[in-house]
Amino acid sequence: MLNCYRFYAAFEFSKRRFSAKYGSDLPVCTLLASRSTRGIAYWLSCYPLDVVKSRVQLSATPPTGKSI
């Protein structure tokens, strides 16, 4: 759920920044840039957790509570 918050927050933040510059009628390129920001924020927030999950799944022994 936290990733969804960052996903929408990044989009709204960049869209509002563009709205301050261009007004309420945003060009298509600014919406594409806002959506790109949204995707980058999503992957930056969930990719590190996915790497940890994959390493735990691929380890030869099950986790014992110690650091990896």
From TrEMBL:
InterPro entries: MCP_dom_sf (IPR023395). The keyword Membrane applies. Keywords: Membrane, Transmembrane, Transmembrane helix. It is found in: Membrane. It comes from the Eukaryota. One of its GO terms (cellular component) is membrane. This is Uncharacterized protein.
